[in-house]
Amino acid sequence: MLKIVAKLRRAYLGLGMSMKEYLTKVALPMLGVSAMLWLVFILGLVPMLPSFIGWLFPVAGVLLVVFYPMLNAAKRAHEIDINMHYFITQMGALITADIPRLKLLEMLGKNEKFGALAEEITEVHFLMDTWHLSLPEACRFVGSRTPSTLLADFLDRFAHSVQSGEDTKEFLRSEQTTVMADFEQMYLAALKTVDVVKEAFMSLVMALIFLASFGVIMPIIMGGDSTVLLLIVLVMFIVVDVVVVYMVKLKVGNDPLWHQLKIETDAERRLKRTFPISIVGCTVVGFLLVFASDVPPSLLIAMTLTPLAYTGWVAKGIESEIIRRDNNYAAFIRSLGSSASARGGLITDALATLRMHDFGPLTDDIHKLYKRLLTRLNKYLAWDMFSAGTGSNLIQRFSIMFVEATDLGGKPDVIGHIISENFHRVVLLRKHKYQSASSFIGVLYGLTAGIAFTMFISVSITEVIQGLYQTMEVPAGMETGFALSMGAVNVETVRLVVLFILVVHSFLSSLLVRTVDGGHIFNTYLHFVGMVWISAMSAIITSVSIHKLLGIA
């Protein structure tokens, strides 16, 4: 209980506002909205749902007001943790330039890409620069309030190091191993959580499959509107898929594969050109198939969406090249640092030698970097063009660290070694993530096939039962009940609704894959088309199989 109270207190302190501000800006609006929703249900303004549901809103509002600071703290903690490897790498690289610790903290705090981590470091700098606290006092003050355990532990070790008189360079060099080990544990734990979410997702989908089958078959037996039941199932599928995507996004964090620079490369332009081609292809195929009356609706939708796979295929090919460049970058930056150090810190001369070596798909980008640096116009822009050409977010982030640190007079060999080691460890962690994404793809394809087969079997059975009803001689006095049951289901409408459910589920599942691997949004189309085709083939196979099994023409 004391631990929970301590966490709540720390979370409230992390909001950066007084209790009065929290009550007026956050608590009262939340309670006001929940009270309005409660009145809507109590007054019976939503006749389709029971009024007792309205009592859930005040309870949810109170819980949200109490635990909102903890939710906010968890979000900030994850944003800090996911940037710790960048932070410690840049800190270790900059300190080789012998800049003062106060200036070091100021530079780190101005890095907007660190997000919440930059805010915490800025606070340490503010306490030292404005309130004249010592570095150990400022680190311990911020460490006692930060929601991130990784950052709190680092600040505590940093404060102890300064007080004990340890050399800052040696401390930060040893911290590369310590912080990266903590980051690896956090990263792998997040991937394990994704596996748990995957198992929970499978269980929920299985339950929804049963509910969907129930919604298809039961109306013909007991009466009712199967379309309404299936629309409810559709909403439940969307809710489950969206929640799972959000949970995975929360755990994996913002770790994009593509660079985030405002520079458009040839590969990006080529990828963008594929999208209009795919849209035109979808339009042409759909227009031609509209006149083919003998094409089943499921096959018509799958064939119409197939041109989107072209965009997805191109995106997948470009991402494969980006991953290959990531795999070669660690060796390149380590060699560059060592070679530049042997030449008195001259990066251009070192590149002149290195461009004669083979660094796989990175070789052409190294040649272009050397030519741009020879112009001596803008060193930073040349490296940004190099990072954009590789297409990699990792290369972009680590390259700018190398340029900044060497530009300040840091030791290129030490900087190259630090960046190379940490980059390599991140690449290895990403390989675990790609493996997790691959297993997720297999699960999602399997679930799509399971959903499609189960639901279309239910539709086929419903069609068979309805056909039997129509050929039966109804006993006197029971005509009304049979007419009600037979008229309750429009099989073609039900089939279209089921197909629509599968298309929506396929799209959200492809988004889930993209969330896990951090790839481009266009990469989702390849899996989207694949899952739609699985759904279409399931519809055809189940319909033909059921009819042949029962000997129906």
What does this protein structure show overall?
With 553 residues, the protein is mainly alpha-helical. Helices cover 80% and strands 0% of the residues. The protein has helices spanning 2-14, 19-42, 56-81, 84-94, 101-109, 116-129, 135-143, 149-164, 168-222, 226-252, 266-290, 297-305, 308-342, 347-354, 363-374, 379-390, 393-407, 412-471, 479-487, 491-517, 524-549. The longest helix has 60 residues, at 412-471.
Task: Please supply descriptive tags for the structure shown above.
single chain, 553 residues, mainly alpha, 21 helices, 0% strand, flat
Report helical residue fraction: over 70%
Structural class: mainly alpha
Query: Could you tell me the number of beta strands?
Result: 0
Low-confidence parts lasting 5 or more residues at pLDDT below 50? 479-484
- Total helices: the number is 21
Rounded to an integer in angstroms, the radius of gyration calculated over CA atoms is: 30 Å
Write the H/E string, N to C.
HHHHHHHHHHHHHHHHHHHHH
Main pleated sheet: none
Portion of residues in beta strands equals: under 5%
Shape: flat
Task: Kindly report the average pLDDT value.
Answer: 85
Distance between the termini: 68 Å
Offer a concise description of the structure.
This protein has 553 residues and is mostly helical. It has 21 helices and no strands. The termini are far apart.
Chain-wise SSE layout:
Elements: H1 2-14, H2 19-42, H3 56-81, H4 84-94, H5 101-109, H6 116-129, H7 135-143, H8 149-164, H9 168-222, H10 226-252, H11 266-290, H12 297-305, H13 308-342, H14 347-354, H15 363-374, H16 379-390, H17 393-407, H18 412-471, H19 479-487, H20 491-517, H21 524-549
